[in-house]
Amino acid sequence: KEFLAELAEDVAGASRPPSASSWEEAATCFGTAHDAALATKCLRLLVTHSDRARDIVMKDFVGGPGTHPLLTSVKRARKIGKASHAVLEKEADKFCLALRQYGIESV
What we know:
Elements: H1 2-12, H2 33-49, H3 51-62, H4 69-84, H5 86-101
């Protein structure tokens, strides 16, 4: 559960520029757009292939449609990806599609 929460926080860091996080800060602050892309991909793979991870994400991180910070972060990551990071855009779109398969309309 803690690992999933950390990934959700990394998705929230999509708007941080790469220079904003140093190696020393990396363990305690949100990541960059690249980190958000990797975290989004990890969350998608876990939600898609692990019943337990899917249950945790749906129960603790998603809630109702459009109500949880993770959904807000994914929406923001998608917009940032469209503007400046194609991999982030692609992974956010794939994650949204995965959520839709389980009845969560995120965007």
